[in-house]
Amino acid sequence: MNILDGKILAAKIREELAAAVEEIKAEGGKIPHLAAVLVGEDPASQVYVRNKVRSCEKIGFKSTLIRRPADVSEDELLGIVEELNQDEDIDGFIVQLPLPEHIDENRVTLAIQPGKDVDGFHPVNFGRMAQGLPAYIPATPNGILEMLKRYEIETAGKEVVVVGRSNIVGMPMGILMALKAYPGNATVTICHSRTRDLAEHTRRADIVIAAIGRPNFITADMLKEGVVIVDVGINRVDDEDAPRGYRLVGDVDFDSAATKASWITPVPGGVGQLTVVSLLMNTLKASRGEVY
Ligand SMILES: Nc1nc(=O)c2c([nH]1)NC[C@@H]1CN(c3ccc(C(=O)N[C@@H](CCC(=O)O)C(=O)O)cc3)C=[N+]21
Ligand SMILES: [Mg+2]
């Protein structure tokens, strides 16, 4: 069993991005600038956004964090989005999800100018991605592609089983793995809550991508010998012995799955690390005008 190490890979990519910033500075170009909008006090969202801002600082990007309380109105939020759309210094921005109940996430996502949608959540970016056109690919799927590429995991002709069909992970990941590209060219199955016999599918898989949001859901009995496991889950489970009273576990039971896997991502220190750097990679692309 080998580890797909997100921490090491993310550090390496941050070095590359920092070098790109140095080059931009030397040429007197514009420093990439990412903005993030954070609504409310959700603890996990605060951690993620903090990681994003800190990563910007580490590599020399500019970053702007806009915070509003959970009771912000939809109109005010749409106003912020419009300001960011117009702000010429901002290359890309994200509105951290989930948003409070009274705000229509779709409406907010649709308001983001696709050229600044470094999350790749706007349907224009989704559509372009699905057709293999230049697009911002959502951070988590983009991070997974980067991980497979840099560890030289073979994907052509492989059976890939994606568990989960969300707009931001499962669906795009399934499409990307089926596209004529590397990583890609795989035979893809997308499983979800209505799948009749999940284990029947996962047992055939050469690569399992787990994005279900259920702690330790995938176990060794559901896997084939030599499988590559990409665990997207980040679940907080109570643990009295842990310093914060909880610990993070994936959607895959790591110790169990590790007995079958040839490669596996840990949680934390796997996909999540790449999610953050992917956003930065997209921001650099935005500032260079590489997509639009
Ligand atoms: N508009 C929007 N864009 C997103 O990209 C987005 C979002 N909303 N909402 C929530 C999800 C989740 N997400 C993660 C970011 C960082 C880590 C990350 O840093 N993970 C660390 C551990 C972090 C911890 O200690 O909790 C790791 O896996 O090693 C994970 C997950 C971005 N998301
Ligand atoms: Mg809502």
Automatic annotation (TrEMBL):
Taxonomically, which superkingdom?
A: Bacteria
For molecular function, the Gene Ontology terms on record are:
methenyltetrahydrofolate cyclohydrolase activity; methylenetetrahydrofolate dehydrogenase (NADP+) activity
State which pathway it belongs to.
One-carbon metabolism; tetrahydrofolate interconversion
Give all residue intervals belonging to the Tetrahydrofolate dehydrogenase/cyclohydrolase NAD(P)-binding domain: 138-288
Share an example GO biological-process annotation for this protein.
purine nucleotide biosynthetic process
Q: Which residues bind NADP(+)?
A: G164, R165, S166, I234
An annotated GO cellular component of this protein is: cytosol
Q: Which UniProt keywords apply?
A: Amino-acid biosynthesis, Histidine biosynthesis, Hydrolase, Methionine biosynthesis, Multifunctional enzyme, NADP, One-carbon metabolism, Oxidoreductase, Purine biosynthesis
The answer to whether the entry has keyword Protein biosynthesis is no
Describe its partners and assembly state: Homodimer.
Task performed by this protein? Catalyzes the oxidation of 5,10-methylenetetrahydrofolate to 5,10-methenyltetrahydrofolate and then the hydrolysis of 5,10-methenyltetrahydrofolate to 10-formyltetrahydrofolate.
Protein name, entry field = Bifunctional protein FolD
